[in-house]
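Reviewers of the previous submission asked for a worked example of the structure-prediction workflow described in the proposal, so we include one complete record here. The input consisted solely of the amino acid sequence. No template or homolog information was supplied to the procedure at any stage.
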Amino acid sequence: MIDEQSLGHPGDDPNGPLALVLGCTFGLETFQPAAAIMQVAPRSEPSLSIRRERWDTSAYHHSYVDHYGNRCERFELAPGVTQVNYDVHVVLARPGDVIEPHAPETPAPALPDDVLSFVMPSRFCLPDELGHEAWQKFGDLAPGWGRVQAIVDYVHNHLEFVPGASNPWTTAADAYRAGQGVCRDFAHLGITFCRALNIPARYVFGYIPGIGPGALDEPMDFAAWFEAYLDGRWHTFDPRNNTPRVGRVVVGRGRDAVDVALITSFGPLTLTSFEVRADRDAPSV
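From that input alone, the workflow returned the following structure tokens.
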């Protein structure tokens, strides 16, 4: 059990426990019966404990875990407007990003079978299309953490963050040529360059509270980053922020945004309202 008195302010100790309250609210409208899948609940992680969570909606729903290990919620929606509210209180045992600058790459012949799919092209990440650019820009760099960080630095500087600059069909190659995008485009491009160099990389989606060093002064939203496989383990990299953050909470992982969609609908569905919440939790009394 974690002592409530040990839950300090973020930034005091990025390696100490941090209590957060997270959640989101959706307004959904359909003119006929429809179904939907939402991915907004934190993924089960060894370093995360859930104190309590609650769904508040009139729609019938149930949870399941997909083949990537992500927690999903299935909804049956009646015609009209439905509001879905989700809240969860969690504690992160190790809230700060971990930096391991000496982590080496794993040569392709030595990669485990279960990570090989994260070297292959996927719907939005196209190492075959941007392979020449990747090798031209990063091929001469020493393999390892430093080369992945060079990719992150390049993507961070090459893309301009512009809300609404991309759409659900924008690929990493599209964003690269446009020079702008949102956080998912930053992640897709970083993943694409890594895969082109035979570095396994996977898409990550979740909450980043606006607290601690590196916090951005902008409306709260879900965030996307990626993980690269180095030295036999997965490591966090974030081309959009490009600075260590405190309080990342993973919702899902996959090959790209297709596997970790916020909402997947079956039938016509309109998003009429949307809010995301992520902040420090108050101690229990």
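Confidence is low (pLDDT under 50) at residues 1-8. We consider this example representative of the routine output the project will generate in years two and three.
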